[in-house]
């Protein structure tokens, strides 16, 4: 028997599961989020929200006050590479940036969760939020899903999409919670190294599982 998606209209706002995605760089969390969106879920993309927050006039004004006009592009948008250079190896500056940006990102995430809970067309809510466990945001989620992919697959992906070397991937992962701990904290492990059609089928099964947990 084929997969029969559950009707969103049959779910109350309280039973729509919030699914938090875990995994290392290159595991394909955002890709899996898109597959789940195709199946009727709504995605809260924390990276996209952070980009929007950085370009708010009041935030840009604060950044220029801290670090000068060099943090802006010629068109007035935020130069994210320049911001990254300011904070990557400076914990104090990183903490200052996070104290400015994170409350605004979290507020927008909360707004979107409320919006999607009231949307009859939404089956579930996906939290695609890097460092979800590191920021202790798992309480916003009903279930946690670990997106798994072999190291060599992740290395190839980040080299192709981000220009990272294997050494750069390793360096960045050292600043995150170990993957074995993330996997152990998850309620569900999703293997993301198969044929695309297989992965899409797995996404349907994942959503059905999450809906069954919330019913």
Task: Walk me through this protein's architecture.
It is a single chain. The protein has helices at residues 29-38, 46-54, 57-67, 80-87, 91-117, 151-162, 166-173, 179-185, 196-214, and strands at 18-22, 42-45, 125-128, 143-148, 188-191. It is globular and about 50 Å long. Helices cover 52% and strands 11% of the residues. Mean pLDDT is 90; it is low at 1-13. It has a five-stranded parallel beta sheet with strand order 2-3-1-4-5, with helices on both faces. Helix 2 crosses helix 5 (91-117). With 215 residues, it is an alpha/beta fold. The chain folds into two domains: 14-41 and 123-215, P-loop containing nucleotide triphosphate hydrolases (Rossmann fold); 54-122, P-loop containing nucleotide triphosphate hydrolases (Rossmann fold), CATH 3.40.50.
Element layout with pairings:
Layout: E1 18-22, H1 29-38, E2 42-45, H2 46-54, H3 57-67, H4 80-87, H5 91-117, E3 125-128, E4 143-148, H6 151-162, H7 166-173, H8 179-185, E5 188-191, H9 196-214
Parallel strand pairs: 1-3, 1-4, 2-3, 4-5
Helix pairs in contact: 2-5
The CATH superfamily of the largest domain is identified as P-loop containing nucleotide triphosphate hydrolases
Distance between the ends: 21 Å
What is the domain total for the residues? 2
Flag low-confidence runs: 1-13
Strand order of the largest sheet: 2-3-1-4-5
Alpha-beta content class: alpha/beta
Pfam families: CoaE
Binding site for ATP: 26-31
InterPro entries: Depp_CoAkinase, P-loop_NTPase
Function: Catalyzes the phosphorylation of the 3'-hydroxyl group of dephosphocoenzyme A to form coenzyme A.
């Amino acid at each position: 028997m084929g997969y029969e998606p559950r009707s969103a209209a049959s779910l109350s706002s309280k039973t729509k599961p919030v699914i938090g995605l875990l995994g290392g760089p290159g595991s394909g969390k955002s890709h899996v989020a898109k597959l789940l969106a195709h199946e009727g879920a709504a995605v809260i993309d924390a990276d996209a929200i952070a980009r929007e927050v950085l370009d708010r006039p009041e935030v840009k004004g604060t950044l220029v006050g801290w670090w000068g006009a060099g943090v802006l592009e010629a068109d007035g948008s935020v130069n994210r590479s320049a911001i990254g250079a300011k904070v990557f190896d400076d914990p104090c500056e990183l903490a200052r940036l996070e104290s400015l940006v994170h409350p605004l990102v979290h507020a927008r995430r909360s707004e979107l969760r409320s919006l999607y809970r009231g949307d009859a067309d939404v089956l579930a809510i996906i939290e695609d939020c890097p460092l979800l466990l590191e920021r202790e945001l798992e309480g916003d989620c009903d279930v946690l899903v670990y997106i798994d992919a072999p190291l060599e697959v992740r290395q190839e992906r980040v080299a192709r999409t981000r220009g990272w070397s294997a050494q750069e991937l390793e360096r960045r992962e050292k600043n995150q919670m170990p993957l074995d701990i993330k996997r152990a904290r998850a309620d569900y492990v999703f293997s993301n190294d198969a044929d695309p059609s297989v992965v899409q089928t797995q996404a349907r099964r994942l959503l059905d599982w999450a809906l069954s947990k919330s019913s």
